[in-house]
Write a structure and sequence with these properties.
About 60% of the residues lie in helices and about 5% in strands. It is mainly α and about 475 residues long.
Length: about 475
Amino acid sequence: MAQLWGGRFTKNTDKLVYEFNASILFDKRFFKQDIEGSIAHVVMLEKQGILTKDEKNAIVKGLTEIREEVEAGTLSITEEYEDIHSFVEANLIERIGDAGKKLHTGRSRNDQVALDMKLYTRLEVLQTDLLVKELLLVLQEIMENHLDTYMPGFTHLQKAQPITLAHHMGAYFEMFKRDRLRLKDIYFRMNYCPLGSGALAGTTYPLDRNYTASLLGFEGPTLNSMDSVADRDYVIEFLSALSTIMMHLSRFSEEIIIWNSNEYGFVEIDDAYSTGSSIMPQKKNPDIAELVRGKTGRVYGALTAILTTMKGLPLAYNKDMQEDKELTFDAIDTVKNCLTLFTGMMRTMTFKKDVMEKSAMMGFTNATDAADYLVNKGVPFRDAHGIIGRLVLYCIDKNTSIDALSIEELKEISQVFEPDVYDAISLETCVKKRLTIGAPGMDAMKEVLKRNREYLDDEWQDDEPTE
């Protein structure tokens, strides 16, 4: 078919060149954004006296029909068109005639695709934010239900000190809360409209860019036409935020995989989020967690690709920038799917309180508190450290825990021990006496849960995004 730019050329593009150059297979994803931007553009053109009211009405009606028919499946976006812009304009001209040829007045495909990508990305930022919030709501519920579920906290994958499951989940709550802050920051920084920038130097038509921006829900127009068509920072920032979300999901998945192992047995993943083995009937595999962990590299790859694509580009628009779409679309789909499935897995997961508590008791997680007990009895900390170290060796030899020893056994190591040591080093005491904000103590955690609820009730999105 004839190209939008064909007037300069005397022969058709080579078929392989055309296919290599075309973007219709992937940029058809934002046909709604392309039509939304075109409607705002022609409404502005009519306001400025560049189009007549009849022309504007005919174009808007034609564009609306195209959108509705594509959504209904009665009109297909096919590969005969170079890109989504060509598809929309060609179908519009076919429907309404010469008035459709005025759609592109005062506009270039450069600022048009910049607008489409920005509108699409803006929506995906909002939708991703809602999925992260849903995960936070699940984590908040787990925390509220497990304030007294004791478990070992780890450093170097070795048992360190006793905490609660609520406290452990709270660490991930903070990570995903920061992810939402990043998404919010990206949304407001990117929310300026490039339409009206033309190919790179604006246009001689008396466009009202402020009006167009307001119609499309932007804070205002971008202020440099060259940067407007050459900017993909918002894509890079979004992919960076998505990569960080995946990093957090991957860390979380790694722990779930470990906790699900026979050796730990801390959790039971619901059957709906597990798979079996084709040869080993006893197997129940944490495939969702493993796939989330594995797909993290896929999202990292998209970020690396766009950074590499953009690093050597001179101003203004270059065809290289067409490469911003496919990997970005894939990364967005990947993260949204991972968030949805991971949230479902967490919502249905069973936590084995008795196993977690036993693991904390047998892992000498109260050793630091035992040393503190001796310090409170007047023993210098360095000496107390050595005494408890010998006590741990004794327990390892006897295959027991500190709090399971008799007072006589404790006194063989140090005469300072008295019967009150058992209360001092119980898991409940070890946790509850840690009362500074951010610690696992009951009162501290209740304050954190209160703040979490206030945070979750304070929604930054004015309206829920729609498709």
